[in-house]
Amino acid sequence: MKRIVSSAIFILLTSCCVFAQTAPDAAELTKLLNDFLAGASRNDAAVHDRFWADDLIYTRSAGRRVNKAEVMRDVRSAPAPKPTDPKTVYTAEDIQIQQYGNTAVVAFRLVATTETGDRKQVANLLNSGTFVKRDGKWQVVNWQSTRMPRTEAESKSEVAATEAAFHQALMAADTEKLSALIDSTFVWTRGNTQINRQQLLDGLSAGKLKYGKPDPAKASISIYGDTAIVRGESYTLTFIYQIGGWKAVAMHTSSN
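Above: the chain's sequence. Below: its structure in token form.
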């Protein structure tokens, strides 16, 4: 009798799993996801509006929870990209879909590939969304994003490449490349003087600031999660990691 009951339970559980994994609308949901990611790569507000439901709850990888109105405000208020700005393309890998009638759970690995000049950085995030079908249209009502950790070796390699590009742009007074490598909060402390991001870019453009390239062999890189500190012979650089790569937020120089 116990064997019969156990077998019945096993068959029931197996049937539930098959029902969940079959996902009759898998093709439609996959296309919707891929179309959304293509639109998000170019910051298309119409694509965002179609994808997110009005009652959306979205938990970002940075720990911030937002609704649809806030998502749309961020999308619409983003400045128009410049030709020299970093370009990030979003794609989905390892897509899993479980459908329960008019509700579906879509889980996947989001790959964010950012190109800045000749440099490329890749971030991976584990995303999952709950879709609800209303009036024949699927939309997301809940979204969760978790950034996958990078190894220390990967982070050090990325920071080293970013630092090299930073020094090169600074020496060449290439403000377009430099603006893509420094955060809006960037501050350069030179003795008793502090120079913010805009002052730095303006000074370089006017030829008022000169910078000598430091010796990279004498620099060390320390990683603290999403923060990196580069200690050179006459300078210290602090970088933070954002989706799209590392950006300089502070520099201190004892000379130059």
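The chain has a mean pLDDT of 87.
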